[in-house]
Amino acid sequence: LFKNKAVELGEKLLPAFNTPTGIPRGVINLGSGTSWSWGWASAGSSILAEFGTLHLEFVHLTELSSNPIYTEKVMNIRKLLNKIEKPHGLYPNFLSPVSGNWVQHHVSIGGLGDSFYEYLIKSYLMSDKTDDDAKKMYYSALEAIEANLVQKSPGGLTYMAEWRGGILDHKMGHLACFSGGMIGIGADDGAPEKRQHYLDLAAEITHTCHESYTRSATKLGPEAFRFDGGAEATATRLSDRYYILRPEVIESYMYMWRLTHDPKYREWGWEAVEALEEHCRVESGFSGIRDVYTMTVSHDNMQQSFFLSETLKYLYLLFSDDDLLPLEDWVFNTEAHPLPIIRKSCLQDEATQDKTVSE
């Protein structure tokens, strides 16, 4: 039943790819197959984190359905991205599905960009480390990120700034905090002389994100925090002070725990559990809060779906044994749904069995 539904949904998404470039539009009507771009997206463009975050699911759909079309669609996106000119090796957030050119040079590891990078390293891992294109793209993107976006604050905190046409905005979004875990899981397959460096970078970014939590009254982190005008890892704008039960910081704790078994990651996770219990638990579940810097809590009356699929799952995994959904057998998609790593050796065994049976 679930397999059939997955394939049916996959089929219904295909018309979104009918563009001059094969880059899908952002929104589709599943009944009519009509697709269009978000009204707020710059000049009818598609968004990097949306068209760049289909790879794991579509490749898996091909595995399930034996229909190569799904893999072809996402490989085509990757080919185009590989081919076009990238400013300083960076991938801007907006791309025209008609011309295949970047629209605006805004680069962010947070919202609009985030999961594209995550899916490069995860595509490599999910392919049982055979997808060399994904590997190459990931490490060169990471080099460009380090060269252009990674900064150290006067107080010694490592963070990822945003890039607007060459000008740095010294702000890091809560969404960008997933990158600690991402750089961590990619550390082992980097160049041998860079492996420790990547693990250290992952730990530094995760530490900065933890600081954004500890520097608030509620011990929960704001939507975005800044590193300018004397402030470090704190939201200076009223509009950035909310917390909507987001998982990214806890996600990095979970990966860093699995990779290093340093007890501080479980301690940090437990601090988050206590803060969630104290400030976000309401009668019917959990709610986001409007200002992490005040103890007079104002709830936003919403329990986001990612709270269940990610925040609680990552906390549960953080306190579980490593053999529960082990990282060598499973890759989590960007909403923390586990997808299996299909071992090439298993596929070969199957082929040999089939051959023997037919003989």
UniProtKB/TrEMBL annotation:
Xref: Pfam families: Glyco_hydro_47
Protein name stated in the entry: alpha-1,2-Mannosidase
UniProt keyword list: Calcium, Disulfide bond, Glycoprotein, Glycosidase, Golgi apparatus, Hydrolase, Membrane, Metal-binding, Signal-anchor, Transmembrane, Transmembrane helix
GO cellular component, one term: Golgi membrane
Species of the source: Lates japonicus (Japanese lates)
EC number: 3.2.1.-
Top EC class for this record: hydrolase
Pathway as given in its UniProt record: Protein modification; protein glycosylation
Cofactor field: Ca(2+)
Localization per Swiss-Prot or TrEMBL: Golgi apparatus membrane
Entry similarity comment: Belongs to the glycosyl hydrolase 47 family.
Membrane topology: Single-pass type II membrane protein
Main location: Golgi
